[in-house]
Amino acid sequence: MFQILSWTIRYLFIGMIYYFIFSIIRLIYLDIQSIHNRGRQSQAEVYLKLINRKDRLDFDIREFYDLGTVTTIGRNKSNDIQIMDKYISSNHTKIIVDEGAYFLEDVGSVNGTYLNSERIEDVVELKNGDRIGLGQVEFLFVKEVD
């Protein structure tokens, strides 16, 4: 009896390991595919890439957002990027381009805007690879250089 139980537990454990490996490979594949699909959709050099896993959020959100001259982010429909997160203000933050440089500014949000895990109080310049945190969402600022 003990031997049957031992073999059953062993095979269940092996099955869980294979399932875990399959899940990791699937996530890598989906991430590579989303990057490949983004390249077809837009030729923008500057964009925000979602870092969070979409399936863990209780609202719809896109993987990539292209940035314009002035890009506003918040829950309100008038924003360029509308995110229906309950922790994001109606008008939360904006990203502004000035002479080729991109700047992040919090526009009086309740829960604040975070740059690389530090709450911003003033306008700050964005650099390639910066992490922007808003509510439950975190974006990677990407500025592709030729």
Structure overview:
- It is a single chain.
- The protein is built from one helix and eleven strands.
- 16% of the residues are buried.
- Helices cover 27% and strands 31% of the residues.
- With 146 residues, it is α+β, with helices and mostly antiparallel strands.
- The mean pLDDT is 88.
How do you describe this structure in short?
It comes from Alkaliphilus hydrothermalis. The protein has 146 residues and is an alpha+beta fold.
Task: Give structural attributes.
alpha+beta, SMAD_FHA_dom_sf, 146 residues, 11 strands, 6-stranded antiparallel sheet
Strand/helix succession: HEEEEEEEEEEE
Helix content: 25-40%
Which value, in Å, is the CA radius of gyration? 20 Å
- In whole angstroms, the N-to-C terminal distance is 67 Å
| Order of the strands making up the biggest sheet | 2-1-11-10-7-8
Largest sheet: 6 strands, antiparallel
User: How many helical elements?
Assistant: 1
Proportion of beta-strand residues: 25-35%
Overall 3D shape:
elongated
The average pLDDT value, as a whole number, equals 88
Unreliable residue stretches: none
Number of DSSP E strands: 11
Structural class: alpha+beta
Keywords: Membrane, Transmembrane, Transmembrane helix
Protein name: FHA domain-containing protein
Transmembrane segments: 12-30
Domain FHA: 71-120
